[in-house]
Amino acid sequence: MPVSVHRSPVADIAPLTLYRILWMRVAVFVVEQEAAYPEIDGRDIEPGAELFWAADGDDVLATLRVLREPGNTRIGRVATAPQARGRGIAADLMRAAIALLDAEAPGIPILLDAQAHLAPWYGRFGFVVSGAPFAEDGIPHVPMRRTRLATERLVLREWTRSDDDRAFLFDMYRRPEVRQYLGNGQVMTDPAEVDALLDRWQELGEGILGVRAVETAAGERIGSVLLKRIPWSAHVADGRDDEIEIGWHFHPHSWRHGYATEAAAAVLALAGQQGIERVVAVTNPANTASGAVAERIGMRAEGRTRDYYDVECELYIADERV
């Protein structure tokens, strides 16, 4: 009999099937891994929670849990019965859950806490480490996240530590024409600088905030788009609420194709959908091309300001929900 994949809220699962799912989770997480913790934790019956499972007839072979949390979704309790391991069944469940969440909530992060030795396995599905390691019930874990937002021509996703992603970022930021309007204009000269950059970007991930890789539908890397908290200048910082900045950095080979406009418009729309009512963009006054992108995505030119980054910038604002 072929393996079948199912999903359902707990209340709608047949009692014997639910028993088999929970029995397998306890057998794996509590008995096999010798972790004495409340496996049945109450979250299976939260609003929006669903269980996925793979079955061969009455036998439950693998399972996972999907939770819908404010600002993100979460996958957890990924387990496979010992006799079913090595057959790719858990991977099939992961793909099914991810496909559902990507369609249901495009661009919204999917989070999970991975046992550290399984981080590369989750990386196969686009998850990246998003914070410091921690121990749970004596088992090393790492937090991970995945985002995906598709437009007509582009895919926006997490930057990874893969050789290809790192090589692209070094190639982009070593170019004077890319760096001339960013910060002090200094180009990258050592590929090791990419790791420090990715470390900084990792810290910016918060809900829909973060720095996303932009690639074509065919998988060609072309740039970055960011949505993050913007630092106030020293003379205006006290007592001011955080503001959210949108920005974009693209490789010269992708210029003049409208990619920056398409990617930034998608992220700005996502911000509006998630209740962010004011987004700013700041550009070097000489960077007229970037200013034109801001205006094309509907941002309003407000003239020059020294309110951010302790430098004079051209300010663009979107302050109505998209």
Describe the structure.
28% of the residues lie in helices and 31% in strands. The protein has 322 residues and is an alpha+beta fold. The strands form 2 sheets. Strands 1, 2, 3, 4, 5, 6, 7 and 8 form an 8-stranded mixed beta sheet that branches. Strands 9-10-11-12-13-14-16-15 form an 8-stranded mixed beta sheet, with helices on both faces. The N and C termini lie far apart (49 Å).
Which tags fit this structure?
eight-stranded mixed β-sheet, alpha+beta, about 325 residues, 8 helices
Point out poorly predicted stretches: none
Most strands sheet: 8 strands, mixed
Percent of residues in helices comes to 25-40%
The number of helical segments is: 8
| Distance between the first and last residues' Cα | 49 Å
Share in β-strands: 25-35%
- What would the average pLDDT be, to the nearest integer? 95
Give the C-alpha Rg. 22 Å
List the helices and strands in order: EHEEEHEHEEEEEHHHEEEHEHEE
Shape: elongated
Number of strands: 16
Counting helices, strands and paired strands, the structural category is alpha+beta
Summarize the structure.
The protein is an alpha+beta fold and 322 residues long.
